[in-house]
Design goal:
With 62 residues, the protein is mainly α. The protein contains 1 helix and no strands. The mean pLDDT is 78.
Length: 62
């Protein structure tokens, strides 16, 4: 019985670790992009809902 509990705990921890790694990786990518945009002097504006305003590229479909 203890082996089953150990396996499920280990599997849950591995799953959580994988999700955290993925979230941290995406956050790092987003922060690097923001830093590059700030360095270039083209800081993107944000809409009221917090999403980034893509400017002319985002309005090309309309």
């Amino acid at each position: 019985m203890a082996d089953d509990t150990d396996k499920s705990t280990t599997q849950a921890r591995t799953s959580r670790d994988d999700r955290l790694k993925s979230a941290l990786r995406e956050n790092l990518k987003r922060r690097k992009l923001q830093a590059r945009e700030r360095a270039a002097g083209t800081e993107p504006s944000q809409n009221e809902d917090g999403s980034l305003n893509e400017g002319a590229a985002g309005k090309a479909g309309t």
